[in-house]
Amino acid sequence: MNDAVALFTRLITMHPLPSIVEFNMILGSIVKMKHYPTAISLSKQMGLRGITPSLVTLSILINCYCHLGHMGFAFSVLGVVLKRGYQPNAITFTTLMKGLSNNGEVRKALDFHDRQVVKPNVVIYNMIIDGLCKDGLVTDAHGLYLEIVGRGIDPDIFTYTCLIHGFCSLGQWGEITRLLCDMVDKKVNPNVYTYNILIDALCKKRMLVEARDMCNLMIYRGQRPDVVTFNTLMSGYCLLNIVDEARKLFDTFVDWGIIPDVWSYNILIIGYCKSKRIDEALSLFNKMHYTNLVPNIVTYSSLIDGLCKSGRFSYAWELFSAIHDGGPSPNVITYNIMLDALCKIQHIDKAIELFNLMFQKGLTPNVSSYNILINGYCKSKRIDEAMNLFKEMHHRNLVPDSVTYNSLIDGLCKSGRVSHAWELFKLMHDGGPPVNVITYNILLDAFCKIQHVVY
Length: 455
Description:
Blueprint: H1 2-12, H2 20-32, H3 36-48, H4 55-68, H5 71-83, H6 90-102, H7 106-116, H8 122-134, H9 138-150, H10 157-170, H11 173-185, H12 192-204, H13 208-220, H14 227-239, H15 243-251, H16 262-274, H17 278-290, H18 297-309, H19 313-324, H20 332-344, H21 348-360, H22 367-379, H23 383-395, H24 402-414, H25 418-429, H26 437-449
Keywords: Repeat
InterPro entries: PPR_rpt (IPR002885), TPR-like_helical_dom_sf (IPR011990)
PPR repeats: 54-88, 121-155, 156-190, 191-225, 226-260, 261-295, 296-330, 331-365, 366-400, 401-435
């Protein structure tokens, strides 16, 4: 976010000014991060500099106001669009309708739609229903579905699939059953995407028997499973630690004429690593190379984590070094895995070197990165260095969590600095992260050891 704003500031002070396209790209990226007020503020700066907005700029603004619930401003921007002679496109109208719907004004959204097009169109309604479901407003989406049925418009497979996906995310199986019955009544056949959504929801609820039954029903009704179907079922088995069943499914890919993708391998590799069957995970990793599949950072991170947790640190370090020498770019998660492993074997200084390397590679350590190092320092009784990292977090606008405070409070208590630990405890109470039972237990233990009973 800060980088985007810094780039905008640099561009707006250039002579001559860059094209509107470059500004739109920055505004678009800020909107993707959901910093709508910032995007609006920057667009105002553009106006003050005399930069003429394009239709894209104004559409971004409409989107921002809709997300913030400022529909009056959104329609004002639509007025600017028309005043400048731009022709609003389907995206502009859909954004406004979604904004109205999201703010509890579904009726206005429908009326607005009817004024824009002569005949109501299921495609435009599907866009709104899809948007509402993705924003978690599934009840509103279902209300809109009932509206369009009442208007004599036949929902299609996309309508039902969006709603089923939404209700699956809420675990509302009664609503899902009713929708499936509606599909039967209207002779709308579920497709592979619909079945995959249902299978995924069942797997996440650990209902593997029902998930397999759904897959069999899908085949019986003439829908051919795809790689997503098998990956989903494999994930379900691995979730229950039944890796051998997942492997059996993996081995049937060929029978179905399906080519495993990177995620098929990742699911099994993660499953094997969690079951501490590292050699089998490594065997699959090697098999990927023979099938010309390129392992991604998830593959490497999963293997590195599994190797570290099974005590094969030297091999994990080799893999980590390999991705630095031409493999996929390691991310913060990959570094955190290595930091944690180094701290656990008390190689704190090596961990600090790796931590500093993150900055050199353009990566920003997160709260977990700091927590790992702070905990490592505390366990090594290097409390002052841990406190320095704690201060650094504030300078980098990272908010310490309960794990950060508990590690420091524990380290301070074990170093005999109970009064300092008590000060940190009070900070937690005065607007810090929630105090949990671990925090109290650490302090109770420390006070009892110094024979200071607290009432």
